[in-house]
Write a structure and sequence with these properties.
There is one protein chain. With 278 residues, this protein is mainly beta. It folds into four domains: 59 residues, Nucleic acid-binding proteins (OB fold (Dihydrolipoamide Acetyltransferase, E2P)), CATH 2.40.50.140; 60 residues, Nucleic acid-binding proteins (OB fold (Dihydrolipoamide Acetyltransferase, E2P), Beta Barrel), CATH 2.40.50; 69 residues, Beta Barrel (OB fold (Dihydrolipoamide Acetyltransferase, E2P)), CATH 2.40.50.140; 67 residues, Winged helix-like DNA-binding domain superfamily/Winged helix DNA-binding domain (Arc Repressor Mutant, subunit A). The chain is built from three helices and 18 strands. It has a five-stranded antiparallel sheet with strand order 3-2-1-4-5, with no helix packed on it. A five-stranded antiparallel sheet has the order 8-7-6-9-10, with no helix packed on it.
């Protein structure tokens, strides 16, 4: 059976002026596909095997190529946006016909020149298309352990779960919602610390440092924020977590720890309606 999106070894069954036809074997010729003349090796003869990649050309006809695609079915790859149009984007994947990325398969709008992580799927017409929704295609057998530092690409953000990250562009990971997801954007490259390796092999990440180091950083950030706002912030112990995150980009617990550190160091004054820089 001919399979689009994969490399297969087929045999030459017929030669024509514009190329050769390939099939699974000399006995199974019901399904055949054209390999254009310019890609046919000079020494290829009837019955000879050849490895090709199968897809559809610009007229939706099955076609074989000896060119090496940058992405095959079941894999994830980083591809450059070659152009955008009214119905989606088109990606350079090393073949003559660019790969279509529909709007509905984009986790953020993309522009020409962007590099996006995508996987292949077959649409209803059995045409190969790209999707940025790569969660099912990522691996869960990473070599990383708790507290390892990793790098990855944010490929999707969920208001319920957090920022989904492809570590090394291949391993499945998540920055939970509580971990400053508001600072993450799709396509962003992040450096993070592994906080947990789940039973299924997926990674939990944090873009924050360990607590004692993070407290120092939060205290410094709060001092800088106070300076930027004229020495006063309308945040206090009864401020809502949402208000604190919006103004200070911290959780309420992180804010309270930073305030406690600065108060002990006598760098701020606490009031019922806010904090003031001394």
């Amino acid at each position: 059976m001919l399979q689009f999106g994969t490399k297969q070894i087929l045999v030459m069954i017929k030669q024509v002026d514009f190329g050769v036809y390939l099939a699974e074997s000399m006995k199974q010729t019901q399904e055949k596909v054209l390999l254009p003349k310019k890609q046919v090796p000079d020494d290829l003869e009837i019955g000879d095997p050849i490895e090709v990649f199968l897809y559809k050309d610009s007229k939706d006809r099955p076609i074989a190529t000896t060119n090496e695609p940058k992405l095959t079915m079941g894999k994830v790859a980083r591809l450059k946006v070659a152009a955008t149009g009214k119905i989606g984007a088109f990606l350079d994947w090393g073949l003559e016909k660019d790969l279509f990325l529909p709007f509905r398969q984009q986790t953020t709008p993309v522009r020409e020149g962007d590099e996006v992580l995508v996987a292949l799927y077959l649409d209803k017409s059995e045409r190969l298309c790209a999707t940025m929704k790569i969660y099912p295609y990522l691996q869960t057998d990473s070599p990383y352990q708790k507290d390892d530092e990793v790098t990855g690409t944010v490929y999707e953000i969920s208001s319920n779960f957090g920022a989904f990250v492809a570590v090394d562009d291949q391993y499945s990971a998540l920055i939970p919602q509580k971990e400053y997801v508001s600072e993450c954007k799709v396509l962003q490259q992040v450096t993070a610390r592994v906080t947990a390796v789940k039973e299924d092999g997926k990674l939990d990440l944090s873009i924050r440092q360990k607590a004692h180091l993070q407290m120092d950083e939060d205290a410094k950030r709060l001092l800088d924020l106070l300076a930027e706002h004229g020495g006063r912030l309308p945040l206090h112990d009864k401020s809502s977590p949402e208000e604190i995150r919006e103004i200070a980009s911290m959780s309420k617990n992180e804010f309270k720890r930073a305030v406690g550190r600065l108060y002990k160091e006598r760098k701020i004054l606490l009031g019922q309606d806010g904090i003031t820089l001394l």
